Amino acid sequence: MQMTKQQESRLLWVLLAVLGGLVLYRSLGGEQQRTAPLTFTPGMTVSSPVRRGIATSGPGSGTDPVSLFLTQRVQRYPGVSRNIFQLIEDAPAARSKAAAKPEATVTLPTPTQPVKSPEEIAADAARADLSRFRFLGYLTDKDSSLFLSKDGELFIAKSGDIVLRTYKIKTAGKDHVVLYDTATKVEVRLELTGSADGKPR
């Protein structure tokens, strides 16, 4: 909605009239400024609730800041040291008591593990390596060929044969094979894979 120039001028005169009426009402009919009597008259002495400083005696001592400073400097408070850089007098005695008292050292017992000999370490390694073999089955021919596997490699051997240089097939049955390490004298019994007990012993 657009206003014409005549309407704008009328609106302006109305606003000016309202503003002038407010100014007249404020100046003529407003409240008078509130005033209150002074609490303290000039020359009146009042006791201050604030704690007074050090009471000094002598003529003109109340207005002498040097004497007041010297008095405060000389003043001693019982049990309080004024010099913040001065060491506490009881500190050496406390330090000597602390140094004289020995601290009890507690040593926890370390668990003792039996040290294995090189032969035992070699036997454990051979036993773990022999346990990786699997007895897959056998062929009922003249010499009963045995099928073994280790890490994806297939071996066809007979009882008494040497496998991988030091491993000998000591005995063989229908459901088990006994492998023997000729270097460490360790033997492992392998059950037939798929039987009720197919884990090496």
List the keywords.
29% helix, single chain, elongated, three-stranded antiparallel sheet, SH3 type barrels, four-stranded antiparallel sheet, 201 residues, alpha+beta
Describe the structure in your own words:
The mean pLDDT is 76. Strand 4 and strand 5 form a beta hairpin. The protein has a domain of 72 residues: SH3 type barrels (Roll), CATH 2.30.30.830. With 201 residues, it is α+β, with helices and mostly antiparallel strands. The strands form two sheets. The chain has a four-stranded antiparallel beta sheet with strand order 4-5-6-7, with helices on one face. Strands 1-2-3 form a three-stranded antiparallel beta sheet, with no helix packed on it. The chain contains four helices and seven strands; from the N terminus they run ααααβββββββ.
CATH topology of the domain at 120-191: SH3 type barrels
For the secondary structure, the number of strands is 7
Give the class from helix and strand content and strand pairing: alpha+beta
Low-confidence stretches: none
Q: What is the arithmetic mean of pLDDT?
A: 76
- Helix percentage: 25-40%
The sequence of SSEs as H and E is: HHHHEEEEEEE
Radius of gyration: 56 Å
User: Per CATH, which architecture of the domain at 120-191?
Assistant: Roll
**What is the 3D form?**
elongated
Percent strand = 15-25%
For the largest beta sheet, what order do the strands appear in spatially?
4-5-6-7
The major beta sheet can be summarized as: 4 strands, antiparallel
Count of discrete alpha- or pi-helical segments spanning 4 or more residues: 4
What separation lies between the terminal Cα atoms?
103 Å
CATH class of the domain at 120-191: Mainly Beta
